[in-house]
C-alpha cells in the first residue's frame, strides 16, 4: 500500500485505507470557520440596528425595537410598590379573620413576617417563637391574653407592663416577700401548683388546705380551676407550659417574689400593617404546630 497514492479519477490523495477495492479520499474538512464568523458578524450588525447600541455625542442610538432596560426596571419597581401598597391597604383595613382565610395574603404574610419576627421578636421569644426562660412560648402555649387575631394584634400594639398608655398589666404579686402569705403557705401552694400541673397528687389534708389558700389568694386572677384568665393575663397553671419554669423551686420563686414580665409595645416602632401581619404570622405558626 503506497503512501500518498493519488486517485486516478479525482486526482485527490487517498488516505491509504482500502476496503474491498474502495479507497477513501483524503479530502480536507470544509472551511466552516468563515461561515461561522460570517454569521456572527451578520448577527452583530442586525443586533446593533435593532437594539440600543452606538454611542453618539448627544446620547446613543436607541435601536429600531425601542428596547429600554431602564424603563423595564422602573416598571418592575412600580409594579412591586403597587403590589405592596395593595397588600398594606388590605392588612390595615380588612378583618383579620378574613385575611387569615385568604391564601394569597397569607403567602405574603409568611414571606414578609419571618424576617420581621427575627429582627424584632426572636431575641426574647426565640426564632421559632417557642420561648425562652422568662419569655413565653407563643407558638404553642395557650395565650395568656387571648388567642384570637385581634387580641394578639392588640397585645403586640400596646405591650405588657410596657410604657404605652394603654398597655396590659400582668401583676403576679410577691406573696412571700410582701408578707401576704407565710413561708410555709407559699411552699404548700408551690406543692399544690406542681401537683395540678404534673403531679403527683397531694395527700387529701394538704390538698384541701392548699385549695382553700388558692381560692382565697389566687383564683381571682388564675381562675377557680387554675386554668388562667385572659382578663388578667394570668396563665393556666395546670398545663405543661411555663413562662418561667415548672420545677418546684421556680414555682415557689414565682409565688414568693411575684413576676412582672415586660413585653415592649410596638405601636410607633412598627406600622399598623406590620403589627397585624405579625399577629397573623403568630397564628399561622400556632396552626402549624400539632
Ligand atoms: C424584650 C423582650 C420581648 C420582645 C422583644 C418581644 N416580646 Fe412578646 N413578650 C415578652 C414577654 C416577657 C411576654 C410575657 C409578658 C407577661 O409576662 O405577661 C410577652 C408576651 C407576648 C405575647 C402575649 C402572649 C400571651 O400569652 O398572651 C405576644 C402575642 C407577643 N409577646 C408577641 C411578640 C411579638 C410579635 C414580638 C415582636 C414584634 C414580641 N413579642 C417581642 C417579651 C418580649
Ligand atoms: C393579681 C393577679 C394575680 C394573682 C392574685 C396571682 N397571680 Fe399568679 N400570675 C399572675 C400573672 C399576670 C402572671 C404572669 C406574670 C408574668 O408572666 O410576668 C402570673 C404568674 C404566675 C406563675 C408563673 C407561671 C409561669 O408560667 O411561669 C405562678 C406559678 C403563679 N402565678 C402562681 C400563683 C399563685 C399560687 C397565686 C396565689 C398565691 C397567684 N399566682 C396569684 C397574676 C396573678
Describe the strand arrangement of the main beta sheet, using strand numbers. Answer: 1-2
Strand content: under 5%
- Radius of gyration from the alpha-carbon trace, in angstroms: 38 Å
> What's the order of the H and E elements?
EEHHHHHHHHHHH
Largest sheet: 2 strands, antiparallel
The proportion of residues forming helix, as a percent range, comes to: 40-55%
The best one-word shape is elongated
Low-confidence stretches: none
What is the level 1 CATH name of the domain at 88-169 and 262-288? Mainly Alpha
Backbone structural class = mainly alpha
Q: What ligands can be seen in this structure? A: heme C
Mean pLDDT metric? 92
Q: Would you give the CATH topology of the domain at 88-169 and 262-288?
A: Cytochrome Bc1 Complex, Chain D, domain 2
Number of helical segments with 4 or more residues = 11
Instruction: For the record, give the distance between the C-alpha atoms at the N and C termini, rounded to a whole number.
Output: 85 Å
Please tell me the CATH architecture of the domain at 88-169 and 262-288 by its name: Orthogonal Bundle
Quantity of strands, as a count: 2
CATH homologous superfamily placement of the domain at 88-169 and 262-288:
Cytochrome c-like domain
Amino acid at each position: 500500500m503506497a503512501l500518498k497514492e493519488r486517485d486516478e479519477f479525482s486526482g485527490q490523495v487517498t488516505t491509504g485505507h482500502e476496503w474491498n477495492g474502495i479507497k477513501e479520499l483524503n479530502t480536507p474538512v470544509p472551511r466552516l470557520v468563515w461561515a461561522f464568523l460570517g454569521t456572527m458578524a451578520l448577527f452583530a450588525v442586525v443586533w446593533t440596528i435593532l437594539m440600543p447600541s452606538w454611542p453618539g455625542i448627544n446620547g446613543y442610538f436607541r435601536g429600531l425595537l425601542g428596547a429600554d432596560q431602564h424603563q423595564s426596571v422602573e416598571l418592575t419597581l412600580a409594579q412591586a410598590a403597587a403590589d405592596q401598597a395593595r397588600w398594606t391597604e388590605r392588612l390595615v383595613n380588612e378583618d383579620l379573620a378574613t385575611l387569615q382565610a385568604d391564601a394569597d395574603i397569607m403567602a405574603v404574610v409568611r414571606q414578609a413576617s419571618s424576617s420581621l419576627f427575627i429582627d424584632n421578636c426572636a431575641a426574647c421569644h426565640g426564632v421559632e417563637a417557642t420561648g425562652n426562660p422568662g419569655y413565653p412560648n407563643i407558638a404553642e402555649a395557650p395565650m395568656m391574653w387571648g388567642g384570637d387575631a385581634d387580641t394578639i394584634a392588640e397585645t403586640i400594639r400596646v405591650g405588657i407592663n410596657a410604657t404605652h398608655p394603654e398597655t396590659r398589666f400582668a401583676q403576679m404579686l410577691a406573696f412571700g416577700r410582701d408578707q401576704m402569705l407565710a413561708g410555709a403557705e407559699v411552699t404548700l401552694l408551690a406543692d399544690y401548683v406542681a401537683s395540678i400541673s404534673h403531679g403527683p397528687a397531694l395527700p387529701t389534708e394538704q390538698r384541701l388546705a392548699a385549695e382553700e389558700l388558692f381560692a382565697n389568694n389566687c383564683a381571682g386572677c388564675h381562675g377557680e380551676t387554675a386554668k388562667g384568665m385572659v382578663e388578667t393575663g394570668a396563665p393556666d397553671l395546670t398545663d405543661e407550659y411555663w413562662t418561667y419554669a415548672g420545677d418546684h423551686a421556680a414555682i415557689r420563686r414565682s409565688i414568693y417574689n411575684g413576676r412582672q414580665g415586660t413585653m415592649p409595645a410596638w405601636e410607633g416602632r412598627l406600622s399598623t400593617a406590620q403589627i397585624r401581619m405579625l399577629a397573623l404570622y403568630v397564628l399561622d405558626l400556632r396552626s402549624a404546630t400539632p
